[in-house]
Structures are given as structure tokens and as C-alpha cells.
Amino acid sequence: MAKNLKRIARLRVPLYGVEVIVCPTKQDAEKEMWTGVLSDNFMAQVTTGVDDKSGVECVAIIFRSLDDYCSETLTHECVHAAWRVLELVGVKSDVDNQEPLAYLAGWLSKEVNKFMLSHIEQEEPASNGK
């Protein structure tokens, strides 16, 4: 029996309070947030904008499809997202202040991975013809 999964995740970043929205597919991003948000030649993208539904500035991590999800892309996009969150709250990341970026990228990676894997696991039986 397939679980009824949320189509997007809304993560509230501890300490900073910024919302990070995770979209497992381009179609989910366009339905929930912004149309035309992801270029067709990108596997994933991080963007900052005002959420159409909440009216609040947020950071979004958008994957083109579940097939495009991998550890390299997860890491890459979570570093971009963490950097954007820190910019929004006025925390400077540089060689002398790396810890906020490192901790936040790690937390985002854990949370995004949990969300994405739940979607991938649900899709597997359908793609295997079961």
C-alpha cells in the first residue's frame, strides 16, 4: 500500500527560522510555488524567492525528477541552500567563519535526504511493475 506523501517539504531551519522548501520534482515546484522555476538542463537548483502560498521569503531546493537525485547533487544543493539561508539572516561565511555553513549544510542534507528517500521508495514498486 502506497503512503500518502506530502508533495513538498517545508523545513524550518533551527536557530535561524528561515523556511526551506524541498520539491522532489519540477512539476511539484511549479504546482506549489513558482512556474518556470527550473531550467530544463539543470538536475537540481536552489532559488530564493517569496513563496506564493505563504508570502514569506524562503529558500527552495528543487530537483528535476526523482531519477536525478543522488548524493553528489544532494550535497551540492545543500551547500548552496545553507549559504543562502545564512545570507538571509546576515551570517557571513568565510574562511574564518565556516562552522555555521558546515552545520547547516549537514542538517539540510539529513532532512532533504529523509524526504527524498521516502518519495523514491514509494516510486520503486511502480517502476518495477509491481
User: DSSP strand (E) fraction?
Assistant: 15-25%
Task: Report the biggest beta sheet as strand number plus sense, adding barrel if it closes.
Answer: 4 strands, mixed
How many angstroms does the end-to-end distance come to?
Answer: 11 Å
Outline the low-pLDDT stretches. Answer: none
Helix percentage range: 40-55%
Question: How is the quaternary structure best described?
Answer: single chain
- How would you describe the shape? globular
Mean pLDDT: 88
- Largest sheet strand order: 1-2-4-3
H/E topology pattern = EEHEEHH
Per-chain topology:
Blueprint: E1 9-12, E2 19-23, H1 26-32, E3 44-50, E4 57-63, H2 71-89, H3 99-127
Parallel strand pairs: 2-4
Antiparallel strand pairs: 1-2, 3-4
Describe what you observe in this structure.
The protein has 130 residues and is an alpha+beta fold. It has one domain. 42% of the residues lie in helices and 18% in strands. It has three helices and four strands. The longest helix has 29 residues. The mean pLDDT is 88.
Task: Describe, in short, the structure shown.
The protein has three helices and four strands, in the order ββαββαα. With 130 residues, it is α+β, with helices and mostly antiparallel strands.
Supply database-style keywords.
about 130 residues; alpha+beta; globular
